[in-house]
Structures are given as structure tokens and as C-alpha cells.
Design brief:
Length: about 350
């Protein structure tokens, strides 16, 4: 069995499923749901005609350009997962159908359903691939068949579980905004810097509302924090690559000296409750944005998109100057200030020295 799994490149491990597949799923979501949301927001806010027009109609549902991109989130996630699992072509192409079915049947918690169903379907497809002379028929049949069966069997339950977990976190944050502001901000921020996908976690748990705002605060604190405290080591290139790229670039240095993580993490513990208690910042855009931080400015843009959605729905009267102040402070200014202050004490204590954060 071990030889067979090795031959088929089937690796049952936390890294393969919890890091590679989860990270790829976030990329698939980014290239579909998130990009579609951004396109729709630009079209609406800047009154760009061709972005607001219906370009396709399926049944009674009309789709704009952004709407089509968002509607493809299930297939995009499944194909991305298949790519991360190194699926052969026939398996990879079959993942389109698997992703559509699992996302649709998973309902609001579709991303979590896609993750589980796509992984299992892909591995079954890889196992049967090129084992018979009718590979071109059997491989897609097995991959899609397993995917459809699992989508029917477990996708609805997984979707409900994800929705319930996300609702519990959001309810707890509303009930205890200070404590949950700290907890959510720190945990999601740590996940962003670790080689796992905070974006996929937020998407799977549908982390929006005030809890989503805390998640944004934590992610921004990690990215902006590392960008500014490592400036002496990395200069402007490091500032940009971490500030609007990813703080994951510091992971190798964290392994060597975990104390470099103190300043951004404590900064997130401060900005999280400020976001939830003072500015009451909410993420009511795409849930994936809650775990993106300042990567491509997706986190702040997601908050803005949520404002637009709330105004359109009538749940928010207008976007105020206080909203903008909170967004700028939480996402950019306070993470930089708090991280620099805390890091100064860390350096003074001799825990971190010059060169420890060189990337």
C-alpha cells in the first residue's frame, strides 16, 4: 500500500492537506469570489457601465462580469486544491464539477465543504488514474462520481457546521467584544504569518461582522508590524514585500528566533479590541477578506465593500469620517506605532538583534 500511495503521489499528511490544499483553496477563492466582489464594487462606485450590465442570464439569475467570477468560486477552489495535490490532468479537469456541486450543496458554508470533498475526490481520482486502458473514461467517472456522492452525503452538514461555528464566534464577539477582539485578532493574525491560510480559514468559517473586523486588525498588525520593525534589515523592498505582500516571509526567521514575533503579536492584541470596542469596525464584505490583512490592500478594501453593501441594504445610513479614521488607524497607523514601541523594548532586552529579520 505504501508503495502504491507513493507511486500515485498520495501523501496523507497535515502539510499536504492543512497547508498546501488550504492555501491553494484561498487562492482559488481570491481569483473568483474576491476578484468578482472587487469588480462589482468598482463598477458600482465609479459607475462603470460595462461592469454593471448583465452579460449572462441563467434561468432567472442575471450575472454581471463580477457576478460570473464570483459564481465560479466552487470550481476555482476545487481546481486549486487539485493543483496543490498534484493531480494528473484528467483528475484536475474533473474537479470543476466536484467544486461546483460541493459548493452549491454546502450552502453558506460551501468553502469548507469544497475543501473536504475536493481532497477526497482528488485522491480517489489519482489512485485510479492510468490504471486501466479506459483511463479517459474511468478517471473522470471516479473523480466526479466520488465528488457528487460526497457532496450529497456530507456537504450540507459541513456547510451547516461551518456556518454554526462562524455564527458562534460572531455571537461571542458581540457579547464580549474586548476579550474576543483580542482572541480573534491574535489567532487569525498568527495564522496569517504561519504557513497556513488565514484567508481560507476566515472564508470557511464565514468570519464577518465585528469578528471579521478583529481578524482584519490582527492580520494588518502582523503585516505592517513586521514591515516596519524589520526596516533596518530589509529597507524599502522588505517594507513593501511584507506590508502589502505577506508577513509569512519572516517564518524562517521566526523559527530561528521566535522573539521577533513578540511586537506584531502584542500589537494585534491591542488593535483587535480597539477595532471591536471603539470603532466597532465590521467586515461585511467577502469573508475571505477578513484573513487577507493588507495583502494587496484586500482587508481594508473588504471593509469598504462591506460599508457599500450595508448602505445599499439600508442597514447603514452612510460612510462617515469616523469609519475612515478607524480603518486607517486600525489597518495602518496603530500597527506600525505599537509594533515599533514594543519592538524597542524587545531590542533593549537583548532578545532581538540587527539581522535577525533579514529576508
Amino acid at each position: 500500500m505504501k508503495e502504491f500511495l507513493k507511486k500515485k503521489n498520495i501523501e496523507i499528511s497535515l502539510k499536504r492537506y492543512g497547508i498546501d490544499a488550504l492555501g491553494a483553496m484561498a487562492q482559488g477563492l481570491f481569483c473568483s469570489l474576491l476578484i468578482g466582489t472587487i469588480i462589482n464594487t468598482f463598477g458600482t462606485q465609479f459607475h462603470i457601465g460595462f461592469l454593471m450590465e448583465t452579460v449572462a442570464k441563467v434561468g432567472d439569475v442575471e450575472y454581471t462580469v463580477g457576478g460570473i467570477a464570483s459564481a465560479m468560486s466552487g470550481p476555482a477552489m476545487a481546481v486549486a486544491i487539485g493543483y496543490a495535490l498534484k493531480c494528473p490532468p484528467l483528475v484536475l479537469f474533473s474537479m470543476v464539477s466536484v467544486g461546483f456541486a460541493s459548493n452549491a450543496l454546502g450552502g453558506a458554508g460551501g468553502p469548507l465543504a469544497v475543501l473536504f470533498v475536493a481532497i477526497i475526490s482528488a485522491e480517489f481520482g489519482k489512485a485510479i488514474s492510468k490504471e486501466t486502458r479506459i483511463d479517459i473514461l474511468l478517471t473522470p467517472l471516479v473523480t466526479i462520481g466520488v465528488g457528487m456522492f460526497l457532496s450529497w452525503l456530507i456537504a450540507p452538514a459541513l456547510g451547516k457546521a461551518a456556518l454554526a461555528t462562524g455564527d458562534l464566534i460572531k455571537w461571542a464577539t458581540e457579547l464580549q467584544p474586548f476579550l474576543m477582539g483580542i482572541l480573534v485578532s491574535v489567532m487569525v493574525g498568527l495564522a496569517l504569518t504561519l504557513p497556513i491560510s488565514s484567508a481560507a480559514i476566515c472564508a470557511a468559517l464565514l468570519l464577518t461582522g465585528r469578528a471579521g473586523g478583529a481578524a482584519v486588525a490582527g492580520c494588518c498588525a502582523q503585516m505592517i508590524g513586521f514591515a516596519v520593525i524589520s526596516y533596518k534589515d530589509n529597507k524599502i523592498g522588505g517594507l513593501l514585500s511584507q506590508g502589502i505582500g505577506t508577513s509569512m516571509l519572516q517564518m524562517g526567521n521566526i523559527v530561528k528566533n521566535p522573539r521577533i514575533w513578540i511586537a506584531p503579536t502584542l500589537a494585534s492584541a491591542i488593535t483587535g479590541p480597539i477595532a471591536t470596542c471603539i470603532f466597532k469596525m465590521e467586515m461585511n464584505g467577502a469573508p475571505i477578506s477578513s484573513g487577507m490583512g493588507t495583502c494587496g490592500f484586500v482587508g481594508p478594501l473588504g471593509v469598504y465593500t462591506g460599508w457599500v453593501n450595508d448602505v445599499a441594504a439600508g442597514t447603514k445610513s452612510a460612510i462617515t469620517a469616523f469609519d475612515w479614521l478607524g480603518l486607517v488607524l486600525i489597518c495602518f497607523v496603530l500597527p506600525a506605532v505599537f509594533s515599533l514601541i514594543i519592538h524597542a523594548f524587545v531590542v533593549k532586552a537583548g532578545w532581538v538583534k540587527e539581522g535577525d529579520m533579514k529576508i
